[in-house]
Amino acid sequence: MSVIAKTPVSITDTASAVATGQLSARSVVDECLERIAKQDDRIGAFNLVLADRAREQSENIDDAVIRGETVGRLAGVPIALKDNLCTRGIATTCSSRILEGWLPPYDATVVKRLQDEDAIIIGKTNLDEFAMGSSTENSAFGPTRNPHDISRVPGGSSGGSTAAVSAGFALGALGSDTGGSVRQPAALCGVVGLKPTYGRVSRYGLIAFASSLDQIGPIALNVADAAALFEVIAGHDPLDSTSISHPLQTMEKFLEKGVSGLRVGVLSELTGSSVFYENNHKDVFASADIADDTVQHAVQGIASDVATKVDQAVRTLKAAGATLMPVSVPSATLGLSAYYLIAPAEASSNLARYDGVHFGSRVDGNNSSEMNTATRTAGFGVEVKRRIMLGTYALSAGYYEAFYEKALRVRTLMLQEFAKAYEDVDLLISPTAPTTAFELGSKTFDPMLMYMSDVCTIPANLTGHPAISVPFGSGDDGLPIGIQLMGPALSEPLLFQAAAVLEQAADSQAVADRTGKTAWPG
Ligand code: GLN
User: CA quadruple 265, 269, 271, 273: dihedral positive or negative?
Assistant: First the structure.
């Protein structure tokens, strides 16, 4: 059963129609609320729907337009927020029991920026508890389901946000991406998701999971909308000391630019399914044969329908004028291992603050230590406890050097190898996720299997580089497939530029499919 939005509407069109009085913000909000009321009991995208508040805000915007006032760039656009973004006076749970009853005393900077542009926060979306997971099944409030097929997961951890956009419950959403949590669920739900350069978007008010990896990213139905949201949320923030002050360009001009002359590398280690290389690319690649051992050492488990799509994406970029070449970054295969030491290590420290004293729920005990243990035992779910234990172990005396420090060295190696790769290419391409959306419950029994979902997305978090997932047709099961484009620090304009080319090709193919023709080049 599919619940995807039938009439995709764009953020930019909606905002300009609202600003000129052709469309009432109230009607946009009502339409989303109606869809949510009808369908979210099957999807479970929202932890909280802010219906009254959204209606009131939309009326204020409509009144301002009638008075002839200038309204913001996102006037009347309903946006869903992952429930780990602080909203002043509005429950923010991280889908955890431990934060039950907590009301943040401030707004996250991204929330403030959205509201300053007259966006309407329509609700808070479900996630894997504290953003730890790849399927949104680790939520204390029950799973979210994929709008394309409700027997499948939406991906995670921002599965509530990507499902909300894909189902038409909101025109856009924000998620957080620590190891792939914006891009992987975007791929599985057939929407666009960007992880910006580390520091490009303020983390102030994002509840920390692994602070050196976390970034907030936009989720939207199309590339132009993702770019419009990115422009609003990005930029320097004195409240986040890791925020970058580098000036921000407007994205619009890049969307039409095409890829002529761009050099795009196919990241061999993440694309190394035999299907991809059996398909001889001598006709596509400008230079360099792929060394056999690169293919041998490539990550396992990239499904053949996904590899086929990467092949089509590569051919699409080539036909659009890009120069393609295979690129090897050997340490990319070590990303998953390094991530599962670094992220839990940071998480074990970040989550120490949930002690029953400062935030949320408390279970009493005979003394503070017992209270602390009882609160954390009752308040955290299984996966969060697993991460805290992994992280505490990796940081403990004697193991610190063997595990945590080694992982940091791998991270440095990856940075060096990616920097070298970007001397030869402008962008890298790979799948976003190894497979299409999987069945609910099919990976929950095996954490390692679940962790594998992020094998392609994690490298960009470890290096801090930006990466985007763009929908590119569907797999053998008819479910969406996403292509990942990665670039060096601050290359978001280039990512949008190339993603727009893939999006256009995928749209033409969708039209061609309906008429029985093929649009793929090569
Ligand atoms: N799925 C990864 C994890 O479980 C990434 C999560 C994220 O990006 N927040 O840690």
Answer: positive
